[in-house]
Write a structure and sequence with these properties.
It is a single chain. By secondary structure, the protein is mainly alpha-helical. Helices cover about 40% and strands about 0% of the residues. It contains 7 helices and no strands. It has helices at about 25-40, 55-65, 70-75, 80-95, 105-115, 135-145, 165-179. Helix 1 (about 25-40) runs antiparallel to helix 4. The longest helix has 16 residues, at about 25-40. It starts with about 25 loop residues before the first helix and ends with a helix. Residues about 135-179 have low confidence and may be disordered.
């Protein structure tokens, strides 16, 4: 590749850095799309206050501080969709990990969204943005092999909820169908 291509904000970090470009770039972009679906807005909005300008980082802060109720209020998400949104948020955070090898493959992303695989607790995907915060790649790899979230596992959760059955996802499907 001779230069970076892609929509700023959706393009994986390896497109702009001296890292190999792989199929995991698409996983990163998909994670950013999930953030837009959850937030019901573009990921970057300069008209909002500093803390909410970049939605993915703001969403991580709410997730890390266990303040999902506030995220749901701001994003106008109904209480009945809480579990689905939490699953989508965790999957999005897994998809936008800084290092490509710490992101799941798309087939695993789909299984996690469907509820066929449990979603591991995501690591902070934005730690690399802050001075003094060490990014530990081995820790990232370990996160995907803990318990039932091992990417190579074929263990299936007995009850599965398909994310596309929610009003939040139907809105996205309708938008995509009309384009």
């Amino acid at each position: 590749m001779t230069g970076g291509r892609g929509t700023p904000g959706y393009a994986a970090p390896e497109l702009w850095m001296p890292l190999p470009v792989t199929h995991k770039c698409d996983v990163y972009s998909f994670g950013m799309l999930l953030f837009e679906i959850i937030g019901r807005r573009r990921n970057m909005d300069v008209t909002l206050g500093d803390s909410q300008q970049w939605f993915p980082r703001w969403a991580w802060d709410k997730y890390e501080k266990k303040q999902l109720k506030e995220l749901m209020i701001v994003c106008a998400i109904e209480e009945k969709d809480k579990d689905v949104v939490e699953r989508m948020l965790k999957v999005a955070l897994c998809c936008v990990q800084y290092r490509p090898e710490t992101r799941p493959v798309m087939s695993i992303v789909v299984k996690m969204l469907e509820g066929a695989l449990e979603v591991a607790e995501p690591l902070n995907p934005f730690a690399y943005l802050f001075a003094g915060v060490e990014h530990n790649d081995s820790l990232g790899r370990k996160a995907w092999s803990v318990g039932s979230s091992d990417w190579s596992s074929s263990e299936v959760v007995t009850q599965s909820t398909l994310v596309t059955g929610t009003p939040l996802m139907r809105r996205y499907e309708i938008t995509m169908a009309s384009s």
